[in-house]
Amino acid sequence: DIQLTQSPSFMSASVGDRVTITCRASQGISTYFAWYQQKPGKAPKLLIYAASTLQSGVPSRFSGSGSGTEFTLTISSLQPEDFATYYCQQLSGNPYSFGQGTKLEIK
Amino acid sequence: QVHLVQSGSELKKPGASVKVSCKASGYTFTDYTINWVRQAPGQGLEWMGWINTKTGFATYAQGFTGRFVFSLDTSVTTAFLQISSLKAEDTAVYFCAREDRSEIDYHYWFDSWGQGTLVTVSS
Fold it and tell me: Is B64 part of the contact surface with chain A (CB cutoff 8 Å)?
């Protein structure tokens, strides 16, 4: 099974900061990869799929990159509504799996 | 507009069963696989498996075989998750999610999610 390791698990940042979250896969998964945002008490929301494709309606300050085993999610200029938990996911075959999450809090 | 609407919270005793529903609307139900995801209190997301809405064939992740059953009623565009012999550790929010895909390069992603159903198992 493919394991995903996100880093950091927790981070604090300020509005306007540029933030990068990293996810490493235990084996190569090409670009079968997605990022989600989850706010407390809500369902996850798709941000990025195929490693770098922005989901319709998601602000352009979000971007994704990577291929193989290393992937990044970048938020170019943090907005108040971006403080949430972010999860990576690999969809390279059965079983799918998620990273453990990165909680982004206001500094 | 795609919507997945799940049934309400459940409080069950250990050993009981529960059936969670996921009603889909706004698209052709049988064109998209439905996945199920568990989130224990304060924890991350855990993929449980999927069900092919065209064939009814289900695939379960390790740890979700035996007591967990995915099913469908295509006449009402609804997917179901049934959990039997409930244990305290089954206490969690359960999400259904629609799996979209690219027919060109076979990428997949979960583009729409239900609001989640909290199942609490307590004596």
Answer: no
Cα torsion A68, B58, B121, B47 to 10°: value is 10
Residue B44 in contact with partner chain A when CB distance is under 8 A: yes
The half-sphere exposure of B108 on its side-chain side, counting CA atoms within 13 A, is: 18
Mutate to test the interface with B, among A96, A97, A102 (most CBs of B within 10 A): A96
Whether residue A98 and residue B59 make contact (CB cut-off 8 A), yes or no, is: no
- pLDDT digits 0-9 by tens, A28-87: 999 999 999 999 999 999 999 999 999 999 999 999 999 999 999 999 999 999 999 999
| Contact assessment for residue B11 and residue B88, using Cβ atoms and an 8 Å cutoff | no
**Distance in angstroms between the alpha carbons of the first and the last residue of chain B:** 40
Spatial CA neighbour of A40 closest among B116, B5, B91, B89: B116
Rounded to whole angstroms, the Cα distance separating A69 from B83 reads 35
Cβ–Cβ contact B102 with A under 8 A: yes
